[in-house]
Structure formats: C-alpha cells, structure tokens
Amino acid sequence: MGSQSYYDVDAILTDAQKVPCTFELTVPGLGYLEGNMTGDIQQGSKVELPLWLGEMLALRHVQPSYVFLFKRLTLPHSQSLNTSSLVTLDHPSALAPRVLNALKADPRTVDLRALAPHFYSLGARILDLFEEDDMVHVLSETFKARAAVIAGQAHNPRGALGEGADFMRGLDETERKLFRDAHDSAKAVRTWITDLKKK
Amino acid sequence: MALPLPPGLTPPEVAFLCEMELVSIIPRQRLDSLDLLGGSIPALVPPHKTSVPLWLALLLKRQRRANIVPPPWLAPPWLTAILEYETEHPDTFSPPPRLPPAPGDHSIVFSPPFLPQSTVEAGPDALPYHWLELGEMLLEAATDDFEDGESVRRLLQGLREVRMAKLRKRTETLDEPGGIRMNGIGGMEVAEGRSFITGVVDGLRRIRATYEEKRRERGTEDGAGSPRTVDDYDDDEMETQLTS
C-alpha cells in the first residue's frame, strides 16, 4: 500500500468498510456471519464482510485438503469444488453503477460521505482488486471536479457555512483533509500579513 | 509520522528568504561599509542611492535612518497593466522577469530568486519571484515612501486573488501526462498553493495507482517480446515431456 503506514487510521477504517461477498463453498460453523449462531454458512449465501476479511477470503486459495475436509464434514454433493477461493467479492454499494452514473452526471451533488466515509480510499482498494478502467476515469474526474469546488470553499470564508454547507457535509475523508489543507495554508498567509501589521 | 509543520516553507520562512533581496534606499545618515557573512554592504553616504538587503533597509527605515525607494514595478500604472494581463489571460500567469544573459566563467551564478534583476534593477513590466512578500513588507514598513500606497495595496490584493484563483483552477486541467504550468508564480503563492495541489495530485495518484501500473506492465510486455517467448518455449518443452 506504499504510503499508507501501519498505524494509518484512515487505512484501518477503509479496511473496515463492508463489501458484499458471496460464499462459493459451504463452510461449517461460520453461520454466525449471517447471524445464525450455530449453523453453517451455505454455499451461495451473500454476506456483507469487512474489506480486509473479504479480500483475504477471495484472494487466498483454498488448500485441497481443506476442501476435502469440508466435503467430508458437510457432504454436499452438488458443491462445485473447481472454484479455488472461498468467496467472490462484489462491488460495494458505494461504487454501484447507479452511483457512478450519478457521478458522471454531476459530481458536485453526490453526497459521498453518506455512501462511504472513506469513499476514495475504498475506491482505490476496489480498483486494486478489479480492473475497471471506466471506474478509474469516473473517480478521477469526480475528484478533480470536486477539488476545485473545495478550493473555492476553503478560500471563501462564508462559503462553507452558507450555500456551500450541503456540499461540505457530503465530503469524504480525503476531501475533508484537502479542505483543511487549503484552508490552513490560506490562513497561514493571512496570519503572516496581519502579523506584519502588528510589528 | 506527524510533523508539526506541513512540508514546504511556511509564509514567515518565505518572507525571511525574501529579506535577502536587494532594495534601493536613500540613506539619511552616513554608515561605513559592513563586511557581513552574506557579503559586504557598501558604505552609505546620504544623498546617494544604494542597494542593500531588505532586512537592513527595513531596520534603517524603522530607525528613520533611510528612505526606501520602491522598486519600479511596485507602482500603480505598472501593476494595473499586469493585473489587466492577468485578467485577460485566464490560462497563463504574467511572465516572470527576463533572465540576464548567462554569466562568464569567472563570475558567481546567482539562483533566480536573488538576482538583482528581480528587485532593484527589475523591469517595471514583470512581477519578480518575491513580489507579494516584498510588496506587503514594503507597504507595511514604508507606506510614506510610496506615492500612492493605498492603490498599490489594492492592486496587490487584486493580483493575489486573480492569481490564486487561477492556480486553484489549474488542478481541474491536471491530466494524465501530469503537470501544471506555473511559470511566473511567486514564492508566497507556492507556499500557499502547495498543500492543496500536492493533496490533489496525491489523491489522483492513489486512485490511478493500479490502473497506471497495469498500463505500464502492458507497455513493457508489448515492448519486450523476447522473455515471453523463452517462457513459452519452456512450457512447451515441459508439456511434450509429460505427454511422451
């Protein structure tokens, strides 16, 4: 993950966001993921798992001996054993085609925070897993268009409170940091100029 | 991990660097030449115009021992002309002062911020690198040396807003090849725009990281065909061994 450090809170929170997963195998004793405390998790059941777990289960190849064990334990003859991973990942609802279409239409009006507090980080992680050229373009265009608005708001002292308030509430964490940076640097220059007058 | 200061220079640091720039003063008192680490300062003889570093000029001005001569570009007509240029060209900043011809082998080469051409000998038609800091500091310390300080202040404010708006708009045009033309931008503007622009660039890079990596891989694969054929050859050989 390069720049993301082990203690990066944002990276940890991104990892905790849920993604829909479909189990490819029946796993005994994992029913509690579905809220079924004692039972098994059935093949084909859809569960929302945190990204870190989903990613691990989807990418880790199942050892043949384990598959054999599952077979012995559960005896599901219909179970297809040619799949090599436990679950298949799906796109999280925050990156559903509906959302991408809305972003294509007008990036400024979408409330990213309601979709996912770490929208862009989640997007970057998903793009690590899936090859989606279209999503790359939509996300980078969105980021650029919204960054321009954020810069405007950061330099306009009334913008963040007045008509821009709705937009500001919809910023995800990356964008909030961007806003804070832009605001702080403008403030530093203003402070320097006022300090000059005090001397 | 968490440094108290953001990367880059803070506004007071930029202003500190700006104090090395030379400005012209008209001394009111005599002062012998000073040999300082940063170079010697010529003797000050009252009615003669002399170039001294800004910090010394401010000090002498505060002690009422000298008057500062504002640089030629820091006058309403020229600033108005530059402001007009800035508003008429929404895509470019007004060009920086022309660089002097390359010096001979035996002379000291100054880096661009500290050229005499940027301040004392600056042409009136361009903003030097430290225009904002220099302008603000001179206006603050030596308002009475300006003919029309108030309109200079207003014009500087206008220039600052126009240019910062342009700088922020640049990020929208930040495209795949990457790069923002910032010719003619000043030191304080860099300090102000740095964290936002680098934030946008970093964000975009994170989104596009995997995409770019794959594209690069695809590029190298297309470019270098020979290693792949070797691999294919090995595979074929293994298959024939298995089947035979």
UniProtKB/TrEMBL annotation, chain A:
Primary localization class, coarse: nucleus
GO cellular component: GINS complex
InterPro entries, per database record: GINS_A, GINS_bundle-like_dom_sf, GINS_Psf3, GINS_Psf3_sf, PSF3_N
Keywords per UniProt: DNA replication, Nucleus
Pfam families: PSF3_N (PF22466), Sld5 (PF05916)
Domain DNA replication complex GINS protein PSF3 N-terminal: residue ranges: 7-58
The GINS subunit domain, residue ranges: 95-193
Entry's localization field: Nucleus
Biological process terms in GO annotation: mitotic DNA replication initiation
Annotated TM spans: none
The protein's role, per its UniProt record: The GINS complex plays an essential role in the initiation of DNA replication.
Similarity-based family: Belongs to the GINS3/PSF3 family.
Complexes and interactors: Component of the GINS complex.
Protein name, UniProt field: DNA replication complex GINS protein PSF3
Source organism per UniProt: Westerdykella ornata
Automatic annotation (TrEMBL), chain B:
SUPFAM superfamilies in the record: GINS helical bundle-like, PriA/YqbF domain
Gene Ontology, cellular component aspect: GINS complex
One of the protein's GO biological processes: DNA replication
Superkingdom in the source lineage: Eukaryota
Keyword Nucleus: yes
Chief localisation class: nucleus
Biological role stated in the UniProt entry: The GINS complex plays an essential role in the initiation of DNA replication. Has a role in chromosome segregation.
Subunit text: Component of the GINS complex.
Family listed: Belongs to the GINS2/PSF2 family.
Name of the protein described by the UniProt record: DNA replication complex GINS protein PSF2
Species the sequence originates in: Westerdykella ornata
